[in-house]
Each structure stands twice: as structure tokens, then as C-alpha cells.
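Posting for a labmate who doesn't have an account.
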Amino acid sequence: MAGKSPGSAGSTQAGEGGRHATERGRKTLEGLSINLATTRQQWGFRDAVEGCLRHGIRAIAPWRDQLAAIGVAEAARIVRDEGLRVTGLCRGGFFPAADAAGRQAAIDDNHRAIEDAAALGADCLVLVTGGLPPGSRDLAGARTMVADGVAAILPLARAARVPLALEPLHPMYAADRSCLNTLAQALDLCDALDPARTGAIGIAFDVYHCWWDPQLEAQLLRAGPQRLLAHHICDWLVPTRDLLTDRGMMGDGVIDLKGVRRIVEAAGFSGPQEVEIFSAGNWWKKSGDEVLEVCVERFLELCRSGHAVASPP
């Protein structure tokens, strides 16, 4: 279940996408996906899709609030009609809570997120696991709540054929956003919950959060194609002026994006690179079309490994 089977919704969408591209004469740029956070201040879901199509981008990763604004059914219809690939749905997670009722509410919300991802035919549901509950200093306890929460939603995810993608976040977010902070931690949890490596659970690897990790190559190779479900890209600016909303466009920072992609491909992942940029002071202030134009230019120039990668069956 690491990828969509030939008869799955994702494959059907890809086939429809080829027909739509032929009918409309639209170019298609292979290997690039846009996380719709990148243009969230400029466009809603429908306009973002149209913008991506204008630039030849036929893969997207929406956020749940964007789906809520237009309706999940309407978003799914647009995805089907345009033949789009959905490389991930952002996001589920945030499991730790101060009491049992709060933890159950998080599980219930994650069940809804799984249903949304299934409606879109998404490659995975990205999980940002959550940090410390209010007033707590018990980091180990929060991590136990995360493990329990993911275990609780895994049966529904399996039944819906929606792989869960744990996204480790940079340690600066350990208190408030994610107490899962390294690839090794994420993969340890995957191994505990899915020792058979069925593809039901894996990782969403975001260079912004993990580029610094001395174990980066070893852990990505450990993940392999069964665990490596998504590859997110942007850049790390020096200096970084805001912990959340000052991500860089590829090439504006210090991450060796081509080198990282070579490792990702060596690990067996050949899926799209998904641009995810939070940039309140820069890119969110530009037009959506300008942002996408630069995304395409930088992707082609700076992000591809240079190796020929076979398309998945």
C-alpha cells in the first residue's frame, strides 16, 4: 500500500489527467507538486488549481481548511475533472491533550481527515503530531500520547487505503507543534505500529525540518520505498526571521536540494517534490502566478538529481 495500485483512485486520476491535458493542450511538468500553503494568502482551492494548471503543474497538496472553504465533495470533483494527483492532504495529528476527552476529540478529527484524504484519492494523509499539552512539561508523556493516537487511527486508515505520513518537525517546534523531531523517531514509531512494512504508515520528509540531521542519509535509506511517502522542499534562510513563516524559495538558502534528492531517489522514492513555503514577509506578498513561475524555474534548475528515475508501475 506504499503507492496507489493500478485500479486505485490515484491511477484513475492520472489517466484522466492525460486526457484532459491532450484535450486542452496544456503542458505538463513532471515531478513537481505544489503544497497549497505556498499560495494560501493569494488563492483559495479553486483558484490555486487553475494557477497550477496554467504553469503545467498537475500535482497538488491541499490543506483541510481550504477543503472546508469549498466543500470536500466539490474539491474532489475538481481533482477528478482535472485529473490531478494529490500528493498529500495536510493535515491530521495533534494528538496530545490535557485529558481523555481532548485525546478522543483529536482521534475523531483524524478520522474525518482520513475520510477527506480518501475522497481526494490522496497519496497520504500528513500527520503533524502535536507538542506538549497546555501546562505540561512531560515530553515523554506527549510522545506516548502521539503513539497511542496514531495507533488508534491506523485501522481506519488501512480500511480507507490512506497511508499515514508522519512528518517530523524541526526541534524548535517540539513544545507546540510536534514532539516528533527526527526521522529516526518517526521511523521507530512506524516500525512499532507496522513491523511488516505494509505501506500503511510512513514518513513525509520535509527538507526544512530535517536537512540538518547527521543521520539524514542513513534514515532515508532505512525508510525505503515502503516508508518514504512524500518529499517536501523549500529552503532554509540565513538568517531566519520567523520560526514558522520565513521559509525560503529553493536556491535562496543553504540546503543542498540536488544532493538531498539523490538520497531520496536512492532510497526508492520517485514521487514528486512538493513545494511547501510559508513566507509572510516575501512570497505570500507576491502574486500567485509569480510564485509559481519561480517555483518552476527553481525546481528545474536546482532540485532535480540529474538521474533518470523510472516511473512507478
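Reply:
Got it, the C-alpha cells are right above this. Confidence is low (pLDDT under 50) at residues 1-25, 309-313.
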